[in-house]
């Protein structure tokens, strides 16, 4: 039986996610409904992606009995309300990153999902790319010895984008871009908590961070450093340095298709989209979507 998706919001990221879903077999994934705050936006989105039902409110999507899982693509200050709504309606949820604005909100979302016994996942799509799967395999096999240093960055000039600079829209480099660097470092160090974190940054007049440099120290003298910036373009790659070699993820490290292991490069291309995308390698969201399906099947939740 196919996993039946409902899409919450008709914005850019929802567009890319829907295009990515359609690169997967139709017998496994179907998009059955879309909701936006304005009905016309939902209808336009539905027309573009051949989706049968369009709603002018998220509540209607939450009530749709044919939706197994909702993709939440609204901007981050709205994640809490959306996750509350859908999990309380007993829907499984894949919510865009960052899951929420702060720890308190994250806890509330997790509690809601637990209370309603539904599946919830933060859409850190990077984790499910074949490149990331390969990195975890290489590290587990000790291919580059003991990792001593991880360095990565993510910087894109986004000062013209309201959601990147306005506080009430969840602006700031760390929440939007730094999260990709942090999740990468956390993946390499297998989820270990750092012993110390030192950070320095500069803020915009709006009160959100423009550029942040972060140093992390882990047990056994292992280190990591990352920079994120909404002000300037950075290389956007990542390096894992071990005692016996290096692994490099070429740009774009958050949606990676190219891996260099001890100087040897391998490509892992993503499928071509049927419509132009907003984010590099956007069809790579198919891997997180398939992960959701596998988790639901394993839990007997569909
Ligand atoms: O892939 C992404 C993503 O999740 C973002 O938030 O790229 C963006 C950044 O805003 C850069 O465009």
From TrEMBL:
Record bears the keyword Lyase: no
Enzyme Commission number(s) of this protein: 1.1.1.179, 1.3.1.20
Family of this protein: Belongs to the Gfo/Idh/MocA family.
Domain GFO/IDH/MocA-like oxidoreductase, residue spans: 134-247
Entry-linked InterPro entries: Gfo/Idh/MocA-like_OxRdtase_N (IPR000683), Gfo/Idh/MocA_domain (IPR050984), GFO_IDH_MocA-like_dom (IPR055170), NAD(P)-bd_dom_sf (IPR036291)
Keywords tagged on the record: Oxidoreductase
UniProt-listed SUPFAM superfamilies: Glyceraldehyde-3-phosphate dehydrogenase-like, C-terminal domain (SSF55347), NAD(P)-binding Rossmann-fold domains (SSF51735)
Protein name, UniProt field: Trans-1,2-dihydrobenzene-1,2-diol dehydrogenase
Keyword Oxidoreductase: yes
Species classification: Eukaryota, Metazoa, Chordata, Craniata, Vertebrata
Reactions this protein catalyses: D-xylose + NADP(+) = D-xylono-1,5-lactone + NADPH + H(+); (1R,2R)-1,2-dihydrobenzene-1,2-diol + NADP(+) = catechol + NADPH + H(+)
Every Gfo/Idh/MocA-like oxidoreductase N-terminal domain range: 4-121
Transmembrane region(s): none
Pfam family, one: GFO_IDH_MocA_C3
Alphabetical list of PANTHER family matching this protein: OXIDOREDUCTASES (PTHR22604), TRANS-1,2-DIHYDROBENZENE-1,2-DIOL DEHYDROGENASE (PTHR22604:SF105)
Primary enzyme class: oxidoreductase
């Amino acid at each position: 039986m196919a996993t039946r998706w409902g899409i919450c919001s008709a914005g850019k990221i929802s567009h890319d996610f829907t295009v990515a879903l359609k690169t997967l077999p139709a017998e496994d994934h179907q998009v059955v409904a879309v909701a936006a705050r304005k009905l016309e936006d939902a209808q336009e989105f539905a027309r573009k992606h051949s989706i049968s039902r369009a709603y002018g409110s998220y509540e209607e999507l939450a009530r749709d009995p044919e939706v197994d899982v909702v993709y939440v693509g609204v901007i981050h200050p709205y994640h809490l309300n959306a996750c509350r709504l859908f999990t309380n309606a007993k829907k499984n949820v894949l919510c865009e990153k960052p899951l929420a604005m702060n720890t308190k909100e994250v806890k509330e979302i997790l509690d809601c999902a637990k209370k309603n016994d539904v599946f919830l996942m933060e859409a850190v799509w990077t984790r499910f790319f074949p490149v990331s799967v390969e990195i975890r395999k290489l590290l587990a096999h000790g291919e580059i010895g003991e990792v001593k240093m991880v360095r990565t960055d993510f910087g894109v000039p986004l000062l013209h984008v309201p959601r990147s600079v306005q506080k009430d829209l969840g602006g700031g480099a760390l929440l939007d871009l730094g999260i990709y660097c942090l999740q990468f470092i956390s993946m390499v160090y297998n989820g270990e908590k750092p012993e110390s974190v030192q950070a320095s940054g500069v803020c915009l007049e709006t009160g959100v961070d423009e550029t942040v440099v972060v140093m992390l120290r882990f047990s056994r003298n292992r280190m990591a450093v990352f920079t994120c910036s909404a002000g300037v373009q950075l290389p956007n790659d990542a390096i894992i340095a071990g005692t016996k070699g290096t692994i490099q993820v070429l740009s774009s490290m958050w949606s990676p298709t190219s891996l260099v292991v001890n100087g040897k490069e391998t490509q892992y291309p993503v499928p071509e989209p049927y419509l132009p995308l907003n984010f590099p390698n956007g069809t790579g969201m198919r891997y997180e979507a398939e992960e959701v399906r596998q988790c639901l099947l394993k839990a007997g939740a569909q």
